Amino acid sequence: MGKALIIGCGGVASAAIHKCCQNSEVFTEICIASRTKAKCDALKEKLEGTTSTKITTAQVDADHVDELTALIKKEKPDVVLNLALPYQDLTIMDACLAAKTHYIDTANYEPEDTAKFEYKWQWAYREKFEKAGITALLGSGFDPGVTGVFSAYAQKHYFDEIHYIDILDCNAGDHGYPFATNFNPEINIREVSARGSYWENGSWVETEPMEIKKVYDFPEIGEKDMYLLHHEELESLALNIKGIKRIRFFMTFGQSYLTHLKCLENVGMTSIEPIEFEGKQIVPLQFLKAVLPDPSSLGPRTKGKTNIGCIFRGIKDGKERNLYIYNVCDHQECYREVGSQAVAYTTGVPAMIGAMMVMTGKWLKPGVFNVEEFDPDPFMEALNRWGLPWKTEEQPELVD
Ligand code: NDP
After folding, report:
1. Domains in the chain and their CATH numbers?
2. Is ipTM strictly over 0.85?
């Protein structure tokens, strides 16, 4: 079928690349390009001989549009799958425009010096992509990503109008460390230490970080504490799900994680303000990242399951209706299959599927789009086929 250029070679990329290599009919060729080429070469060596996908590697600094454009023009991929960090989204989008190549990512742009993630920067590219005749698919991970596809699916098949969405992200995995993050520590800590917010009756309601706590009995996992966070898909779903009154996002955290985070915050280690240290400027959070366990090393140690899904409440044929759509994933099964824990797996699989949707022409229209703006059916089928089967429950426990 075609060729994907994958940028980044960390935890999520590794899971996505394993899945592309299982799906050689679509991904006949991939080029893995990242800042540290040795990581790309090591992954290529591990996968070669297990797949008919042809794999090449390259070095690229994705902060530089010229370097990226030259690479895309040389490799001539059908799509560019951005699995580097949110800081690189705009440079990669600019390069895709210059080389007229479709773009897919899993996280929205965030300036490195402001911990605020919003779609406004990437949505500003709508007209440019439309004029260039190419597609940008934003947020094709799990959350954002599958949560948006679940919403579009609920809207298409179950509701006349959805009024309430609660997105619940439960990670009941235990890696045995007192404190570690399941994906890039810098991005993760920026996200969880920010103020919370949710969308209600047409505007944002802000909370203190971790101010709202609920307990939920997750299918196949049991009771867990979860906390309201701001999350990027709230912004696009508030626009794209017509008639919506409220959307909230909750994530589970264990007590050990929260105690460590509070302590690190209190001593200034989670700050993104540069400080002077031994004659050099350093960012405390980047230093903290360097001493924490690398998320990609957690795979063999992490046991337990994740459950991520959405609870919808709304109206069908004049009657109230509820629906819970969720996926349960087992950390050890993911590790056996692709050598990654479930957080990388649950992001990497939808990243591969998003790239497949664009490459096969199922999700192709000029412009910049979030996942819920496309037909959810082929993506939902692909989730079942490629390792993230989902379940529905029509009488779920509700959050309030
Ligand atoms: P990692 O830190 O493990 O990997 C990031 C990769 O990007 C590394 O290979 C890194 O290279 C590379 N990289 C960073 N800067 C550059 C640069 N300037 N040029 C080229 N390559 C660069 O992160 P994760 O795999 O944990 O996360 C990847 C993305 O997935 C993030 O954007 C994250 O927010 C997103 N994500 C999305 C989720 C969702 O459900 N939607 C859930 C979890 C994550 P090097 O090896 O040299 O450091």
Report:
1. 146-337 (3.30.360.10)
2. yes
